[in-house]
Amino acid sequence: MSYVLNTPDHQRAMLKQVGAESIQDLFKSIPASLQLKRPLNVPPALTEIELTQHLQHLAACNQGADDAVCFLGGGSYDHFIPAVVDAVAGRSEYYTAYTPYQAEASQGSLQVFFEYQTLICQLTGMDIANASLYDGGSAVAEAAFMAITVTQRHGQVLVAESVHPEYRQTLATYMHNLDARAVTLPTPQGFVDPDDLKRAIDDQTACVVVQHPNFFGCLEEVEALARIAHERGALFIVSFDPISLGLLKRPGQYDADIAVAEGQCLGNPMSYGGPYLGILACREKFLRKMPGRLVGQTVDRNGKRCWVLTMQTREQHIRREKATSNICTNQGLMALKAAVYLTALGPQGLKETAELCTRKANYAASQLTQLAGVSLRFDRPFFKEFTLHVQGKVPRLLQGLLAGGYHAGLALGRWYPSLGNCVSVAVTEKRTLAEIDGLVRDWDNVRSLAQAEALAEERVAKLPKEANALATRTRRKSGHERDSRRS
Amino acid sequence: MKNQSTELIFEISHAGRRCHRLPVCDVPAKAAAELLPATALADEPPPLPEIGEIDLIRHFTNLSARNMSIDTNFYPLGSCTMKYNPKRHERLAALPGIANLHPLQLDESCQGMLEVLWQMQNILAEIAGLDAVSLQPAAGAHGELTALLVASAYFKDRGEKRSRVLIPDSAHGTNPASAAIAGFDAVTIKSNNRGLVDLDDLRAKLDDRAAVFMITNPNTLGLFDDQIAAITELLHGQGALVYLDGANMNAILGVTRPGDFGIDMMHYNVHKTFTGPHGAGGPGAGPIAVRNHLAPYLPAPLVKKNREQFSLDYDRPKSIGRVRSFFGNVGILVRGYCYIRTLGPRGLREVSDNAVLNANYLLSRLKAKIEVPYGDRCMHEFVASARVLRKERKISAMDIAKRLLDFGYHAPTVYFPLVVPEAIMIEPTETESKETLDAFADTFMRIMDEDAEFLHAAPHALGISRPDEVKAAKEPVLRWKEN
Questions:
Q1: pTM, whole model, 2 decimals?
Q2: Number of Cβ atoms within 10 Å of the Cβ of A47
Q3: Option in B71, B144, B463 nearest A96 (CB)
């Protein structure tokens, strides 16, 4: 099955027109010695029914957010996606179109991206936004590159340790062959101490990168940090949580120069890490240094308002090695989803979503920290996720909770050796009182010193693969389970 | 009634309307204003539009009708491989057990997903004829950058200082841009009169400063460079690596493998070759495949299999690190997996057979009337030139492209590659029928006979005429603002 419409008759007629003996004849520019003499060693073809069953089987081997209650965060969140988002993004007039280079045949996508750019400006309070980058991590890297170009400072990029560790790794990888170095600003208290920034920043610092709310969930003192960066002539780059802006001051209000974000939370499923949405907004004066596509408003020959891709002389297909970035394919469909999501929520919906996240996260933290041996690691206000210090082995705790039907949190030890006993817990507007209370109860059970090992052993032993996934699902779907969670 | 598709969403906003409503808070917690410091809070939420549900749906639905798309139009956009996007992929990628997985959930809770990704690593290695695959890059250009960083790490590890990346003049713009971002100097290699790499120019510019030669093969003219064995030998003789821009893999699936013709590293465009879809500009996925000696430098994590258990392997001490957060554009990789599993070995070969047949058929019909500078045969695409038309009748490649839109055909790629004047780059793909190709060829040739003035003013039948791009760039309006 290859979706090919040419029948043997068609092929014969076409070959005749071409003047070729056979299809093989068309490949004669490929030296025979280089041609593959056997079929590719890939699995045999499947019909749609077989493929569907195969994927359903594989999906059943996973425990997604519908099978175990999701308290995982760290840059990807189980927020609710209104049906209108999928209804619009599911229109194949959008998802089977190409990059809108031919403006007359792409006004739909172009106008959506223009609206997306505007929505991001409204959300962030920044002047301009591009039409998307890959994800939150590469957006940080692109922003840092931009800052180096804008400031012409090749000393250092100062990045807070409280920025998502994978964003920092991405930044370090991108910067590997630059003169400028990525320097980490330690955050032992879970946030950037402005005095530490004052000491670390110098006159060759291109930019200061912070995340707000940060990877630990804590708020940063962004206004003070922006001031310090600007006093030394560095740009202030903030990686923000779009949902948080329903409550928190916008990057433009605290004088950020470049605001970047992971836009997954705006109507995109978690999808095991991608495709996501890199958001980048900045001051108008940096326009010509921006990476990525931009849609601009103009008029056609009859003076009718319309939209086109513009400022393309920044881009790789025109400027080649002098381009501001190498990005070509971006995340257009995710930008469309974000535009629909922000429109569907509106100012009140965004505010209420943020409000629910904050209240539920605070409730969850207050309940969990009542358990013996569980405490908040950082004494800082947080938005929708928080970092707990726990006694005992974190992996065992999380495995035990998973077996009980909870994706309970992220172990931070992989990225922060000093936080080996810490778990980050995220709570979105979707989480209910019953789910949070259920987590607390189960956590208590798994944690209980006497039971911990035994219970984890028992549950982990049962864990592998499908059987367990199915069992968990069956449990969760039973009325009894539902009721007990609500009680 | 106002036309809801041409008004901006902001212009149909009315205070007090809304679409999505949230439940009452069911936990006993203080209000957010009491939980968060006042200095951190905004006075008002962002000034987003306020829209009711039916207005939202009508707006975005009507707008969608102002796009051409594969599902509505023939889309022979050269270099972009606009083939049919199977509907089954959309349904399967949206299965809750696939779409609702958190990227950092425990490995034991996503064995099915890891199996798909592990399979995909192996399948892409086999199709490439290479040894190891990273699925992390989000798009083709991202794959290029990743591979160049891998090359850089490899040479650094060997104590070699190599500063140059050699790139043919017919290459995609992403190649030199990626080289620059990876910290290399991009050096252009000329094409010869056959449209292939000029070996003399390559020899002249090749020395021990060369790290990587980036080749697109088949190249952007739709030609397979038959000197490839000599080229890779030259590069390897200097200790350099050869990279394949895999944008044109649709021409050679199961026909020849990059690893078999001397390539050391390459990227795939899953959104092209394995039918993404393109999503109006993305998302894509740009996995890279490399030879064993480069594998240690690939980004982390990779999926590994150990006694029937799959896991993410982060323990890769020589890795370049990572080029994005989380695993990769998994939703697109899953679609690519569905496609490859639907086709199987024979189906993959049929793709290339028919992509090449369709392109040659269209070429043979059009060359009766328009110049095709490089050759009578092509692979999956070819590049015609409106040079003569332009000279004799002042009709440009752009005029033809715009007029094609009137007939319901998406325009081919124009003015690329740069080595062909007035280039019109046509890639029909394997999923189009002879009838579609015939109708397109007839229309194309008919347009060439139309009045020049009439063509300059095309398109005539779309919602708008040609936009003023100069105005857009000179007086940039990049967002809506309230008057």
A1: 0.95
A2: 10
A3: B71
Residue B168 neighbours by CB distance under 10 Å = 28
A15, A272, A333 member nearest B330 (Cβ): A272
Task: Please report where in the chains the tokens 């490995």 appear, as a residue.
Answer: B107
Among A294, A317, A341, the domain boundary falls at A341
Assess whether A329 and A433 both reside in one domain.
no
Say how far apart CA B134 and CA A242 lie, in whole Å: 30
Q: What is the C-alpha separation between A191 and B350, in angstroms, rounded?
A: 57
Question: Quick check: B64 and A94 CB within 8 A?
Answer: yes
CATH 3.40.640.10 fits B352-470, yes or no: no
Decide if B158 contacts A305 (C-beta within 8 A): no
Q: B125-152: per-residue pLDDT in tens?
A: 999 999 999 999 999 999 999 999 999 9
Q: In terms of residues, how long is chain B?
A: 483
Residue A340 · residue B60 · CB < 8 Å = yes
Q: Are both B89-342 and B352-470 of the same fold?
A: no
* Distance from C-alpha of A350 to C-alpha of B32, rounded to nearest angstrom: 13
Exposed / middle / buried, residue A80 (Cβ in 10 Å: 0-12, 13-18, 19+): middle
Number of neighbours of residue B44 by Cβ within 10 angstroms: 8
pLDDT in tens, B325-374: 999 999 999 999 999 999 999 999 999 999 999 999 999 999 999 999 99
- The 10s digit of each residue's pLDDT in A267-316 is 999 999 999 999 999 999 999 999 999 999 999 999 999 999 999 988 88
A316 plus A423 within the same structural domain: no
Structural domain harbouring A158: 84-341
Residue A156 lies in a domain: yes
Q: What is the mean pLDDT of residues A146-156?
A: 97
* Helix H or strand E encompassing B156: helix B140-157
Cβ atoms of A106 and A100 closer than 8 Å: yes
Could B19 and A323 be called an inter-chain contact, meaning their C-beta atoms sit closer than 8 Å?
no
Return the DSSP state at B41. Answer: B
Helix (H) or strand (E) holding B157: helix B140-157
Q: A48-60 and B330-366 helices cross at what angle (nearest 10)?
A: 160
From the list A45, A93, A173, the residue facing B65 with the nearest CB is A93
Is the same domain home to A449 and A311? Answer: no
Q: Is residue A35 part of a domain?
A: no
Helices (H), B238-382: 270-273, 330-366
∠ CA B224-A45-A269 to the nearest 5 degrees? 90
Q: Does the pLDDT value for residue A478 go beyond 50?
A: no
Same domain, A425 and A304: no
pLDDT band at A466 (very low <50, low <70, confident <90, very high): low
A450 pLDDT above the threshold of 70: no
Is residue A236 in a domain?
yes
Question: pLDDT value at position A481?
Answer: 41
Q: How far is B73 from chain A (nearest CA, A)?
A: 10
Fold of B89-342: Aspartate Aminotransferase; domain 2 (3.40.640)
- The residues, any chain, with a CB within 8 Å of residue A67's CB and separated by 6 or more, are A405, A469, A472, A473, A476, B97
Give the three-state DSSP class for A24: helix
Average pLDDT over residues B236-243: 98
Q: Reduce the DSSP state of residue B458 to 3 states and report it.
A: coil
Tally of domains in chain A: 2
Task: Count Cα atoms within 13 angstroms, Cβ side, for B326.
Answer: 29
The token duo for B159 is 């104590």
Q: Are A142 and A241 in contact (CB under 8 A)?
A: no
Contacts of A38 (CB under 8 A, 6+ apart): none
CATH code for position A103 = 3.40.640.10
Same domain (yes/no): A328, A241:
yes
Q: Which of B164, B181, B434 to mutate to test the interface with A (most CBs of A within 10 A)?
A: B181
A18 inside domain = no
Q: Which of A341, A372, A397 is the last residue of a domain?
A: A341
